[in-house]
Amino acid sequence: MSAEKTEKKSVYKPHAISGFPEWLPEFRAVEQRWMDHLRKVFESYGYCSIETPAVEELEVLQAKGEVDKEIYVLQRVHADPNEKNEARLALHFDQTVPMARYVAQHFSDLTFPFKRYQMQKVWRGERPQLGRLREFYQCDIDVIHVDSLPLAFDAEMPAVMYEALAGLDIGRVQVRISNRKILLGLVDALGIKDSVAVTRTVDKLEKIGAPAVAEILARELGIGEGAINAILQLASIKGDASALSAIIPRNAQMEEGLKELTFVMKALSHLPASAAIADLSIVRGLDYYTGTVYETALLDIPQFTGSVCSGGRYDDLAGSYINRHLPGVGISIGFTRLFDVLAHYGHIKPGPKTPTQVLVVLPSEERREAAAAVASTLRNRGLNVELYHAPQNVKKQMEYANKKGIPFVWFPPFEAGQGHEIKNMVTGAQDPVDPALWKL
Amino acid sequence: MSAEKTEKKSVYKPHAISGFPEWLPEFRAVEQRWMDHLRKVFESYGYCSIETPAVEELEVLQAKGEVDKEIYVLQRVHADPNEKNEARLALHFDQTVPMARYVAQHFSDLTFPFKRYQMQKVWRGERPQLGRLREFYQCDIDVIHVDSLPLAFDAEMPAVMYEALAGLDIGRVQVRISNRKILLGLVDALGIKDSVAVTRTVDKLEKIGAPAVAEILARELGIGEGAINAILQLASIKGDASALSAIIPRNAQMEEGLKELTFVMKALSHLPASAAIADLSIVRGLDYYTGTVYETALLDIPQFTGSVCSGGRYDDLAGSYINRHLPGVGISIGFTRLFDVLAHYGHIKPGPKTPTQVLVVLPSEERREAAAAVASTLRNRGLNVELYHAPQNVKKQMEYANKKGIPFVWFPPFEAGQGHEIKNMVTGAQDPVDPALWKL
């Protein structure tokens, strides 16, 4: 007995693992409400859900060459060294590569254009800090088609995401849209060879500012002043479709990009004024984007830096896995990053600690069956109901409701022949009630 | 150009990874419907959602000593050998250990009794076969209390799970319930020392039959014929609370077990006759169960062997992580195992390939805005609506609806002044319609 007690004292004290967030029930309730809302919006535009395993073969994740994401590889604790060599499995670091693999693998079973959403955890072994996690949810929508993909979908992405984010009570949301062909066309017209370096530098505009970008373009890439001015002037253009009409295209690529971006902006004219703007400073660092690109800012939460929802058009993402040309366009919410940063700054109002709407009081062991019947009746009418677990005094039972934030307490008859009463825990009002009729 | 073409032919052909299931959209839709239903039932009894990270520190998973589950440990591809030694992280193999850790870690922030549900993927590096996967969802409910936990919760578990499973269209479900104190009491009364070996042998009854169990008890454990008969006779008892009244307890432990089991069975008397039965052959292999134990059979699907939903009462699961006595009771659905086996045997009717309920035809590029407005109106009324992406001929647009199984096609005016029509793709009927009034 005393040996057991001694043993019990040497407990392993659990603690949070840095970069792997978990929430108390009252915050998890908000996370669930948010995800339910996103799902509802995605489905209202006809996106179907898919889920891929948490792992892919390492070879799939690296099909386009080494990736700069820190990948977690799996290893079994008791791996048998004599076992035949199995493929190395690794946790996916985003949902784009798995989606491309999924589409290639199930190509003949899917109907195109294929519209899917995906809301799963992804993992990156990066050094954790606020806004940079090792495990986080991404919420993505993508459309993939065969051979060519109508531009209408480039316009659908920001419309869906605006609606999705606007429903989360996080203030004003602004999707910023550009088309890489415009900047790439200009770079080509200016006779600059290293377009990748230019786009990666312009991508830093918001972070480091125009003078610093100009300096890198001049010193590191050896670009002349006139060309730098032309690039920075283009990147400074912001506004609606009409702001684009001032740009004079210097070649066919620029013209195509302008035409596409104008189409997208016009198709978004039904959104509120600041919801979607053309912003030619948006280029996205990733090289696989070939046309439209998106970023999203939270206008009312200055502590949230960077883009909460980004994406773009890609020409042939599944090309490593299938001999078909499958262009697509997609956009992704860094869900947990958003949630984590907003929670950190106190922008998330905790939800209820329990889904229970009504606590039915248990008057006595003898009245258990009758009280359980009330709980069951209410449950059958779609309510979330707990029957208190023991016939303790009523004060104690109400204390439980109070602590968990249960909004209503139900008093079934304490003796046969008596009536039912319900207490509103917010107003304190207590009234007679009919279990067959009461509604929330 | 030709170099690129040659390169494109050497694609990596993706294939399924054994043990890591993924579904086509029409099966994923069913999986989602099932999970939504489970969640709804769990919440209707006041269980709140929690989610823990996919990983725990290996030390946490092994706090009770080496586990027999095959654990996956994480390793970063580019781990820096000079980095200070980080704790080894491993994917969780169930949700019980993480839940115990969660409760211990957040003890002071939770309200008890703490009722939670958890529906996450877990991972086990076992050799995959039908019904044994490496990645799968578990759907658990547990109640944890401080110091002592009322028996009412032992009765709530099977009631919730019966309702949850009965809503899945998988035929009759039967929860089989026992209490380990009854068998353990008998074993003690019979003077048998190795009670663990006896329970593990009796646990094999359904699989290997009574004669084989008797032989193991006799040969391997050296138990006499009379004692074996007493054990097997006890284990053969099945029925409702009245079947238990025939058992004569031989000591206080047996008596306590019988009293508890009788309480649980009486509390379940409101369920349909075959929904919950006392079955004294149920013991569960896991040693941490101390009282009530559950298994669940699918009566109408003989191909599904073993238990679809199991659990029991445990006295002190979080004892490795906190110096408090936290008894609990829980039950868990092996969700993906159920889904995978049923899909394999053709018991799952695929759902729709898309959530879209109405496809709005795009008459022409000029009419895009008007058609988009119709789609938007319908969406605002809670419908899932796609606007066809290009002004192709109507036959082509209807073919798309047909292929994806979209039930309604909407024809907005092809010219200003015309009316709207809607076509029911199942009946073929096409009728005039008002976008402001139409309901599904």
Topology:
The structure is a homodimer of 440-residue chains.
Chain A: H1 2-9, H2 25-44, E1 48-49, E2 55-57, H3 58-61, E3 72-76, E4 89-91, H4 96-105, E5 114-123, E6 135-144, H5 152-166, E7 173-179, H6 180-189, H7 195-202, H8 205-208, H9 210-219, H10 225-235, E8 238-239, H11 241-244, H12 252-267, E9 276-279, E10 289-298, E11 309-314, E12 328-333, H13 335-344, E13 358-360, H14 368-380, E14 385-387, H15 394-404, E15 408-411, E16 420-424, E17 430-433
Parallel strand pairs in A: 1-5, 7-9, 13-14, 13-15
Antiparallel strand pairs in A: 2-4, 5-6, 6-12, 7-10, 8-9, 10-11, 11-12, 15-16, 16-17
Helix pairs in contact in A: 2-5, 5-12, 6-12, 9-10
Describe this entry's structure for a reader.
The structure is a homodimer of 440-residue chains. The first copy, chain A, has three domains: 18-143 and 315-344, Bira Bifunctional Protein, Domain 2 (BirA Bifunctional Protein, domain 2, 2-Layer Sandwich); 172-299, BirA Bifunctional Protein, domain 2, CATH 3.30.930.10; 358-433, Rossmann fold, CATH 3.40.50. A nine-stranded mixed sheet of chain A has the order 1-5-6-12-11-10-7-9-8. In chain A, helix 5 crosses helix 12 (252-267) and helix 6 packs antiparallel against helix 12. Chain A is α+β, with helices and mostly antiparallel strands. Residues 1-9 of chain A have low confidence and may be disordered. In chain A, 46% of the residues are buried. Helices cover 35% and strands 20% of the residues of chain A. The interface between A and B is large, with 97 and 97 residues. Strand 3 (72-76) of chain A pairs antiparallel with strand 3 of chain B, so a sheet runs across the interface.
